[in-house]
From TrEMBL:
UniProt source species: Singulisphaera sp. Ch08
Residues in DUF1559 domain copies: 35-343
Protein name per the record: DUF1559 domain-containing protein
InterPro entries: DUF1559 (IPR011453), N_methyl_site (IPR012902), Pilin-like (IPR045584), Pre_pil_HX9DG_C (IPR027558)
PROSITE patterns to which the protein is assigned, alphabetical: PROKAR_NTER_METHYL
PANTHER family the record matches: GENERAL SECRETION PATHWAY PROTEIN G, TYPE II SECRETION SYSTEM PROTEIN H
């Protein structure tokens, strides 16, 4: 064996530390770019999901024109017909069930028993048997990958990130959106309607938006106005007055009152947001959002409705984990990113199907 060369030497400790420091700096510089790229991919998938939902609505409307000779959107919930026997309480099947065939989920649609209840209430009566087989199934297209939650509001039921548009501020005009509670349940003066009923323009009328999934009821006590999960909560708000008053000033006052809640205000509810994807109930804001408060602002219950779980003309906000705004699917099938800073009357106008407002494309 040859003796080691005197010219052969290793790295000194200082050189190693310098190299490690350089690598650490490079990682620190690259990590935000990597995270931004991942979020861009998640946001792109979210947009694609919403486009599929928009296309499903178009196919649903076309199918109804052929089958029943009437142009119509799916109802927000189905308290009659599809689930006779559950027409009084409002707790019923969601628009998501109606759209299953148009989302290439015919097998799951066929497995849904419309003679049974939506979920397990613990009631022993035969017609309260739950649709657990379908309810436990998680539909991938209904989830936004940017949501980030690792829990479901009510395990093991599947949940959803996308909610249908109930309308602008209910204080001004209730049920003014595109996929709303049916007339049999709400007393809404407008019967079934489709694209012909959207006189404000399909490209300026919301159909769906994102809403961050709620948390299990056990975590409600941890959700405050100033907490990281505030957007997943529903807070007791001020008295916003009754619905259909056609008074924008009252609507604006309610929004300002919601924004002014102290940071220590605790959520009255969180688990009802998207809690069961098959479930529809306007009072619990379970599958709806509305164009009342600005995107990513607080959701507040109108004290006039009496309770921390009611919300037909309260603030059910579109929320997301995307930076600076939310994705909104419009009635023409397009998906646009609406900023949190959108002018509030413009946001209200995007929520109504026939309010007569004029909104330019550069206003949001």
């Amino acid at each position: 064996m040859y003796p080691p060369s005197k010219n052969c030497r290793g790295f000194t400790l200082i050189e190693l530390l310098v190299v490690i420091a350089i690598i650490a700096v490079l990682i620190a510089l690259l990590l935000p770019a990597v995270q931004a790229a991942r979020e861009a991919a998640r946001r792109s998938q979210c947009v694609n999901n919403m486009k599929q939902l928009g296309l499903a609505v178009h196919n649903y409307e076309s199918a109804n024109q052929i089958m029943v000779l009437q142009s119509m959107f799916p109802s927000g919930n189905y308290p009659s017909g599809m689930n006779s026997g559950f027409s009084t309480g409002g707790a019923s099947y969601s628009w998501t069930v109606a759209l299953l065939p148009q989302m290439e989920q015919q097998a799951i649609f066929n497995a849904f028993n419309f003679s049974n209840y939506v979920w397990d209430t613990g009631v022993a009566a035969a017609n309260f048997r739950a649709n657990t087989t379908v309810g436990y199934t998680q539909i991938g297209v209904l989830l936004c990958p940017s949501d980030g939650t690792s829990t479901r509001p009510i395990e093991p039921y599947g949940t959803k990130s996308y909610h249908c548009n109930l309308g602008g501020p209910g204080i001004i005009q209730a049920w003014s959106g595109t996929i709303v509670a049916p007339r049999a349940w709400s007393g809404n003066a407008v019967g079934p309607f489709g694209f012909s009923g959207v006189s404000d323009g399909l490209s300026n009328t919301g159909l769906f938006s994102e809403r961050l999934i709620g948390l299990p009821s056990a975590q409600t006590a941890t959700v405050f106005v100033n907490s990281v999960n505030a957007k997943r909560g529903i807070f007791p708000g001020p008295d916003g007055g009754t619905f259909n008053t056609n008074d924008p000033a009252k609507a604006m006052a309610f929004v300002q009152g919601c924004k002014a809640l102290p940071g220590t205000t605790k959520a009255g509810n969180t688990q009802h947001i998207g809690h069961i994807w098959t479930y529809g109930y306007p009072q619990f804001q379970s599958n709806y959002y509305n164009h009342f408060g600005a995107p990513n602002s607080l959701s507040c219950i109108n004290a006039n409705e009496g309770g921390t779980q009611n919300g037909r003309w309260s603030i059910a906000t579109a929320t997301s984990n995307h930076s600076g705004g939310v994705n909104v699917g419009f009635a023409d099938g397009s998906v646009k990113f609406v900023k949190d800073s959108v002018n509030l009357p413009t946001w209200w106008a995007l929520g109504t199907r026939n309010g007569g407002e004029i909104v330019s494309s550069d206003a949001y």
